[in-house]
Amino acid sequence: MKTATKRQYSMVIDLHRCVGCSACDIACKRENNVQHSFAWSNHILETRGTFPNTSFRYIPTLCNHCEDAPCVAHCPTTAMHKDDNGLTMHDADKCIGCRACQQACPYGVIYFNQERPHRHYREYLKPAIAGCTSTGPEAAQAADVPIPVYNPTRATTYPGIRPQGIVEKCTFCDHRLAVGEQPACVEACPADARIFGDKKDPESPVSIALRDHASRVLKPEKGTRPNVHYIRDY
User: Fold this and answer.
1) Which CATH number fits domain 9-231: 3.30.950.10, 3.30.70.20, 2.60.40.10, 1.20.1050.10?
2) Does pTM surpass 0.90?
3) Per-residue pLDDT tens for 51-79?
């Protein structure tokens, strides 16, 4: 199911520059109010061989925003859909929690809110230092936010915290793109290993990187045409 779009936002991850620090994972959680049990930005760890002839790989992962997205094709309510920027987006109001998209995704990057999100904050009722530090609920109440580390800008385009009974996933930080900013994982990378831009623009950083280096994608045999590309090696 090829979708014509005005832009095709894509990401190139330079594994040679990546230092495996997981700053991208942490930045994503903070930016998108992602609960502890999920990881919109994640990674694959691989160790191959037998000592002393071994190799180690660290491969950052996230939603691939596939051009032929199986999650979109299998969603019965069009909650999963493609937008004009080529992003694979999710409409929380249309989601019925059937998890068809999660089953269809070959990359395991769609998560289901089985329970009410951020439960650990509500259940953390014992202060670290009695009479001195605040509990999770006390900190949230004092700041007038749902959770102590809440980022309100996430709620400008998508629920700030997704409710129980629906799925959620990476959006390439669409709320940041809307105001001319880069995704949080790109901005947070200390090694500049992440390159982001419009693949339809031949002069974009993404297009230049793809011209200069041989690239690969995860699970090419699935035919999804991912928009997260990898260049060089860790």
Assistant:
1) 3.30.70.20
2) yes
3) 889 999 999 999 999 999 999 999 999 99
In what helix (H) or strand (E) does residue 50 lie, and over which residues does it extend?
strand 42-50
- Determine contact, residues 145/25, Cβ cutoff 8 Å: no
At 3, the pLDDT band (50, 70, 90 cuts) reads: low
Burial group, residue 115, by CB count within 10 angstroms (0-12, 13-18, 19+)? exposed
Residue 123 confidence class, pLDDT cut points 50, 70, 90:
confident
Give Cα 149 to chain centroid, integer Å.
18
Interior/surface letters 176-188, b for 16+ CB within 10 angstroms, e for the rest = bbeeeebbbbbbb
Query: Looking at residue 122, what is its pLDDT?
Result: 77
Distance CA(61)–CA(81), nearest Å, equals: 20
3-state SS assignment for residue 233: coil
Helix (H, G, I), strand (E, B) or coil at 89: strand
pLDDT attached to residue 2: 56
SS3 106: coil
Spatial neighbors of 76 by CB under 8 A, at least 6 apart, are: 96, 98, 100
Phi first, then psi: give them for residue 76, nearest 5 degrees: -80, -10
